[in-house]
Write a structure and sequence with these properties.
It contains 13 helices and 17 strands. By secondary structure, it is α+β, with helices and mostly antiparallel strands. The chain folds into two domains: 55 residues; 333 residues, Beta-lactamase. A seven-stranded antiparallel sheet has the order 2-1-16-15-14-13-12, sandwiched between helices. A three-stranded antiparallel sheet has the order 5-11-8. Helix 4 runs parallel beside helix 8. It is globular, with a radius of gyration of 30 Å.
């Protein structure tokens, strides 16, 4: 009997060991499966993140507003900030050096009455810098075979005098001789772009054999030509061919109700003074100056122009090609060692200087007119600091 009991105990212990072994085995297998799933998930996440990263434009910002704000990163950007603070600058400045953003910061009031400050998300009217974007849309039409740069204005608006001798390229370079009394267009006090275009065509005159002369009417008519060849309105075309493909999230046409667009002010002895601008005043700027953008979006736009999916090197060279003795072409001043563009509208000012390889530059957008001659000379000085420090 004792022997039997002894054997039974031994058997029970053996069963317990088997059960313990099986339990441990199951735990190990479960842990292994969980580890595999976790590791596999992490591996996919890394691959997806890597894929997302490579598909995005380099040097752009991601995440929240605070993450996108870039304080001065070196002596050059610190010096630029100090200069702007001394000038009582209000707006956003973005500086890039060697293709890397070294400063992206906002200053001053977006809405002084409501005590809302400018941020890196704030949108400002870019004024005539938009002419370059209209020119880009023209080149997209050329790429798709809808237009030719040597095509004559008479193909679209034969009623305009001398139109048979004026090419699309002449208009892009503002060497067409076209003129208009802009006050007559403003007097329409309308937001109807068809009416604005019709009156523009009716009021346009021409100076034969004229060279370069900065006349916005060229770009109003180019916007009209785009509407004709695409059979859609300019705003929709802008969104479809430029804003959406370039993934511009802080770009919009003027809106009285926009919370993203800054108000603009005139600086006097008592501080900034706000004076509203009419909706019709912005509507008059068809294709020439009614777009609002953040500094980051404007940077993304210019960066995109250096990518083959938007413009090849040959297309960009052709678009920005100037006539002999001139500097202006397609919204850009092609200067000796840099490109320059500037826009002023309703006390907003945008100035952009960048190197011809697109690697160094400064983008300044202001909503307070504080400098007697604007910021163009100041930005040129600051750009030289960027280049000198590169």
């Amino acid at each position: 009997m004792p022997r039997y009991k002894h054997r039974k105990r031994k058997h029970n212990n053996h069963n317990k060991l088997n059960k313990t072994f099986l339990l441990l085995l199951l735990l190990i297998l479960s842990a292994g499966e969980l580890y595999f799933k976790y590791s596999h998930h992490e591996h996919l996440s890394v691959e997806q993140a890597s894929s997302t990263k490579t598909n995005k434009l380099p040097n752009l910002f991601t995440g929240s507003m605070n993450q996108r704000l870039i304080e001065p990163r070196n002596a050059t950007s610190a010096s630029i900030e100090q200069t702007l603070l001394e000038k009582n600058f209000s707006g956003t400045v973005l500086v890039f050096q060697h293709g890397q953003v070294i400063l992206n910061k906002a200053y001053g009031w977006k809405d002084q009455a409501k005590r809302i400050r400018n941020t890196v998300n704030t949108q400002y009217c870019i004024g005539s810098v938009q002419k370059g974007q209209t020119a880009y849309l023209i080149m997209q039409a050329v790429k798709s075979g809808k237009l030719f740069l040597d095509q004559k204005l008479s193909a679209f608006y034969p009623q305009i005098s001398n139109s048979e001798n004026i090419s699309i390229k002449d208009m892009l370079n503002m060497s067409s001789g076209l003129r208009i009394d802009e006050k007559k267009i403003s007097a329409l006090n309308t937001t109807d772009t068809k009416q604005i275009l019709a009156e523009t065509i009716r009021q346009t005159t021409v100076t034969p054999n004229a060279g370069y002369s900065y006349q916005p009417v060229n770009y109003v008519l180019l916007a009209g030509i785009l509407e004709k060849v695409y059979q859609t309105d300019y705003n929709s075309l802008f969104d479809k061919l430029l804003k959406d493909p370039m993934k511009l999230k802080e770009t919009s046409f003027y809106s009285e109700t926009s919370k993203e667009q800054a108000l603009s002010y005139l600086q006097d002895a008592n501080g900034p003074v706000y004076a509203p601008t009419t909706v019709s005043s912005y509507a008059d700027e068809l294709g020439t100056g009614n777009i609002f953008m953040s500094a980051e979006d404007l940077y993304t736009y210019f960066y995109s122009l250096y990518k083959d999916q938007y413009l090849t090197s040959q297309e960009r060279t052709e678009l920005w090609h100037t006539y002999p003795g001139e500097e202006y072409a397609s919204g850009i001043y092609n200067m000796k060692n840099k490109y320059h563009t500037r826009g002023v509208k309703a006390r907003f000012e945008t100035v952009v200087d960048f190197s011809k390889d697109g690697q160094n530059g400064i983008i300044l957008l202001s909503n307070v007119w504080t400098q007697p001659k604007g910021y163009s000379d100041i930005v040129a000085h600051l750009y030289n600091k960027v280049v000198a420090g590169s």
